[in-house]
Amino acid sequence: MKILVTGGAGYIGSVVAAELIKAGHQVIVYDNLSRGRRRAVPAEAELVAADMSDRSMLGRTLKYGCPDAVMHFAALIEAGESMEVPERYFRNNVGHTLTLLETMLEHGPRRLVFSSTAAVYGNPRRIPIEESDPVEPANPYGESKVLVERMLAWFNRVHAFRYASLRYFNAAGATPERGEDHRPESHLIPLILQVALGQRDCIAIRGTDYPTRDGTCVRDYIHVLDLANAHSLALQALNQWDCLIYNLGNGQGFTVREVIDVARRITGHAIPSSEAPRRAGDPAVLVASSTKIQRELGWKPQYSDIEYIVRSAWEWHRRNPRGYEP
Ligand SMILES: NC(=O)c1ccc[n+]([C@@H]2O[C@H](COP(=O)([O-])OP(=O)(O)OC[C@H]3O[C@@H](n4cnc5c(N)ncnc54)[C@H](O)[C@@H]3O)[C@@H](O)[C@H]2O)c1
């Protein structure tokens, strides 16, 4: 198949693009490189370096590229930033996604796999979280993803648009070729590894008074290759189904302190930590139930061991201490 990957210069999109190519697909990456890296884009992919707001470039890419499906990763992803400039999140994540959907209606294809998030659930009422649980986002980032899910549901009903919305929990880990290089970085594992690389003095633990086993937040980490595999399965399933929503996590949570301890063992570095106040809007525990996608699509995470996840990230960061910078 030929697949248009928006946001394919970013962390998850670039890994998925590379895996699609390995599986024999053709890939067009569409990314404005605002937060992505040209060097992350697989050499075999065609790169269209343009913004999702550029309706005519999107139109030409769909019309002449003739993809069979779209995987839509392009988005702004910082919950904290979204609390400061919500309008940026609604414009970029919702407004520009509408432009993409309208352009798809005009030129095709009508098949899309969407990157949603655990942030749609806000402060969950129960753990593990199931897809049928209430969607009550606690920040504009999560709300922007909910709004796209709602648009997709209407496009499905009205325009026979087929879609899969994948609600990832904490994406983590790396492949030998690709890893996490967000600027600024806000994700726990790369921040911890920056301490081990001597780029940061210590890791700040934000909140030590949560009602968890050691007072720090519990999160569910999913290896980026397991996410990639779920995308392939979801795309195949759209031959049969027209509207799919799945959580993607390991069903197992680790506290911030536990992740730091794993990183200490793997890197052999003391990784000093400091205690800081809670970050506004951070739920105590976010753990997914992914039994729905396991049952319906046969997805099975292969890299769920937290040691493996952190080790794969460490190997990439050690080899690429400046990320994708030359
Ligand atoms: N990283 C996670 O843990 C996580 C968890 C849940 C959901 N997600 C979702 O997965 C997707 C990918 O996340 P990521 O961590 O790879 O983020 P990322 O920032 O590394 O990648 C996003 C990419 O989208 C591009 N982009 C953003 N706005 C664009 C626009 N207007 N036009 C063209 N390109 C644009 C950026 O340049 C970047 O390359 C996002 O939709 C995010 O919301 C990520």
Description:
The structure is a single chain. The protein is 39% helix and 17% strand. The chain is of the alpha/beta class. It has two domains: 197 residues, NAD(P)-binding Rossmann-like Domain (Rossmann fold); 101 residues, UDP-galactose 4-epimerase, domain 1 (Alpha-Beta Complex). The chain has a seven-stranded parallel sheet with strand order 3-2-1-4-5-6-11, sandwiched between helices. The chain has a three-stranded mixed sheet with strand order 12-9-14. The model has no long low-confidence stretch (mean pLDDT 97). The chain binds nicotinamide-adenine-dinucleotide.
Could you provide a short overview of the structure?
The protein is an alpha/beta fold. The protein is 39% helix and 17% strand.
CATH class of the largest domain: Alpha Beta
User: Would you give the CATH topology of the largest domain?
Assistant: Rossmann fold
Total count of domains: 2
Q: Class by helix and strand content?
A: alpha/beta
Total helical segments: 10
The largest sheet is: 7 strands, parallel
Please identify which CATH superfamily of the largest domain we are dealing with: NAD(P)-binding Rossmann-like Domain
Strand order, main sheet: write it out.
3-2-1-4-5-6-11
Strand and helix layout:
Elements: E1 2-6, H1 11-22, E2 26-30, E3 46-48, H2 55-65, E4 69-72, H3 79-84, H4 86-107, E5 111-117, H5 140-159, E6 162-168, E7 170-172, H6 188-196, E8 203-206, E9 218-219, E10 221-223, H7 224-237, E11 243-248, E12 254-255, H8 256-267, E13 273-276, E14 285-286, H9 291-297, H10 306-319
Parallel strand pairs: 1-2, 1-4, 2-3, 4-5, 5-6, 6-11, 7-10, 8-13, 9-14
Antiparallel strand pairs: 9-12
Helix pairs in contact: 1-7, 2-4, 4-5, 6-8, 6-10, 8-10
This protein binds nicotinamide-adenine-dinucleotide (NAD).
